[in-house]
């Protein structure tokens, strides 16, 4: 047994010394110390050794293993150093070359616009409230005083999941849900994604984002609405911005209006950006209809309020002078890196 172990040791040493690569060295390790290696086979044959000889043979096996492992580690260290030296010679680094600039991502133009809108209204004491994107007919239409024969309920304008469930067409249902809680007064904005059955073009998309606002309190008047939106416009587009309210119709507000802001490119003189009119439409607004208040459990004789809604993409298009809404969703890095 002693002679056999000596032979294994000598053969292992020879193969280790002849190894000129880490791969070959690993093959030697497996051949002698692996599960099916020569030294492992000797250990398995220990059952055939006389009991009085087992301690001596076991010690010889351990000594042989330790000697082989020591030479393996020593040779591995030498080969690794040689490989590293060769790599450094072949892959020299020119420290005079300019470093590669790290490319950091940033927020999407829609997100930047939304954060700006939220900052302005939070500064006025509003809270941000969110709600479900899938709504039933009551919250999406009925509770907003929208009659059954209204065009918005047509299938060509709304995505129906079934006869009672729709993809919300506005974030107004969030306002209804908040009013139903009965916690007055209310000062809130409701940003979120909405869905309408529109063809994709430069100004329309079947999925886009809205920011709607609602104030409910005692003695709220149209003057409060005008003052709030005038301040919002100045914060968003600049201190010299002027506002104009044009009469309009919405089922859920009465009276209702469209809000225009003076063109911040030409100061209201008329240019290509405002199509020569000097004014740009940005949102719809009005006093909350008494029927909407009643359906939400609020007494219109005691409380009043105003509401407004704007398309977030429209705000981003105007603020950053983008002329095609589709650019916001095409994920073209050349476009997005400008913001």
UniProtKB/TrEMBL annotation:
Entry-linked Gene3D superfamilies: Bira Bifunctional Protein, Domain 2 (3.30.930.10)
Sites where the protein binds Mg(2+): 254
A single Gene Ontology CC term: cytoplasm
Keyword Protein biosynthesis carried by entry: yes
Keyword Ligase: yes
EC category: ligase
InterPro entries: aa-tRNA-synth_II, aa-tRNA-synth_II/BPL/LPL, Phe-tRNA-synth_IIc_asu, Phe-tRNA_ligase_II_N, Phe_tRNA_ligase_alpha1_bac, Phenylalanyl-tRNA_Synthase, tRNA-bd_arm
Keywords, comma-separated and alphabetical: Aminoacyl-tRNA synthetase, ATP-binding, Cytoplasm, Ligase, Magnesium, Metal-binding, Nucleotide-binding, Protein biosynthesis
Main subcellular location: cytoplasm
Subcellular location: Cytoplasm
Cofactor mode of binding and number, as noted: Binds 2 magnesium ions per tetramer.
Catalysed reactions listed for this entry: tRNA(Phe) + L-phenylalanine + ATP = L-phenylalanyl-tRNA(Phe) + AMP + diphosphate + H(+)
Highest rank taxon of the organism: Bacteria
EC number(s) on file: 6.1.1.20
CDD domains on file: PheRS_alpha_core
GO molecular function: ATP binding; catalytic activity, acting on a protein; magnesium ion binding; phenylalanine-tRNA ligase activity; transferase activity; tRNA binding
Start and end residues of each Aminoacyl-transfer RNA synthetases class-II family profile domain: 117-338
Cofactors that this protein relies on: Mg(2+)
Subunit structure: Tetramer of two alpha and two beta subunits.
Family designation: Belongs to the class-II aminoacyl-tRNA synthetase family. Phe-tRNA synthetase alpha subunit type 1 subfamily.
Protein name per its UniProtKB record: Phenylalanine--tRNA ligase alpha subunit
Record organism: Candidatus Galacturonatibacter soehngenii
Lineage summary: Bacteria, Bacillati, Bacillota, Clostridia, Lachnospirales
Gene behind the chain: pheS
